Amino acid sequence: MKPHYLIGLSIAALAVPGVVLAQSAADANGDGVLTIEEVQSVVPEVDADTFSVMDANGDGALDADEIAIAQEAGLLPPSNG
């Protein structure tokens, strides 16, 4: 396999858990991102300060990349349970 192909697969594999969580039942309105209310429905102990840390771009919602980073940091549970 060519190195650039492996890099692409690695990036895709890292993004999948976040996408799964964003498309899960936690995403109540199905928009592909999670608001603080949606996160708290699954992880009630997440407060506004913790959510702000996870929301790197400050838009008030967690996208797939932010979810994946939060999962890696242990701020959100892994998507697979």
Task: List the keywords.
single chain; 81 residues; mainly alpha; Recoverin, domain 1
Walk me through the structure.
This protein has 81 residues and is an all-alpha fold. It is built from 4 helices and no strands. It is globular and about 25 Å long. Helices cover 53% and strands 0% of the residues. About 20% of the residues have low confidence.
CATH topology: Recoverin, domain 1
Name the structural class.
Answer: mainly alpha
Radius of gyration, in angstroms, nearest whole number = 13 Å
Task: State the CATH superfamily name.
Answer: EF-hand
* Biggest β-sheet description: none
State the helix count. Answer: 4
CATH architecture: Orthogonal Bundle
> Given the C-alpha coordinates, what overall shape results?
globular
What is the percentage of strand-forming residues?
Answer: under 5%
Q: Could you give the order of the helices and strands? A: HHHH
Into how many domains do the coordinates divide? Answer: 1
Point out poorly predicted stretches.
4-19
Secondary structure tally: strands: 0
Helical fraction? 40-55%
First-residue to last-residue Cα separation:
32 Å
Average residue-wise pLDDT: 79
Q: What is the CATH C level class, in words?
A: Mainly Alpha
